[in-house]
Every structure is written in C-alpha cells, then in structure tokens.
Amino acid sequence: MATLTARELQVLSLMAQGRTNGGMSRHLHLSESAIEKHINAIFTKLGLTEETTIHRRVAAVVTFLEQMGRM
Fold it and tell me: pTM of the predicted model, to two decimals?
C-alpha cells in the first residue's frame, strides 16, 4: 500500500465504496481509460497478477480495508 500514489489510493477508496469504473471516472473527472490504468497499476503494486482463482478487484479492496483498519 505504501507504494500507491495519492490518485491510486483515491481510486482504490472509490473501488471499496463499490463504484464502477464509470462512476469513478465521473467522480474524479478522469477518462475511463485513465481509471483502468490506475487500477492496473494498483493490481501490479499489490502483487495481484492475472490470477484466475481470485477476483483481483475484490482482493485489492480487502487489502485496502485491512490496511485502513476496517476489517
């Protein structure tokens, strides 16, 4: 989590709120393509590879919530 940028943390926080890429895009006034790039950077920095046995978005949110003391 320490390697995430401020924007990546914003995106992850919005992901934890259940927002879609489109919802995050509108909230942050960014393109959906930019949101996707931030999400992919988050997955990479959290070590969430192209795993087929887990849902990377859920795993990223769980990591975020654990680090924030909400789980």
Answer: 0.89
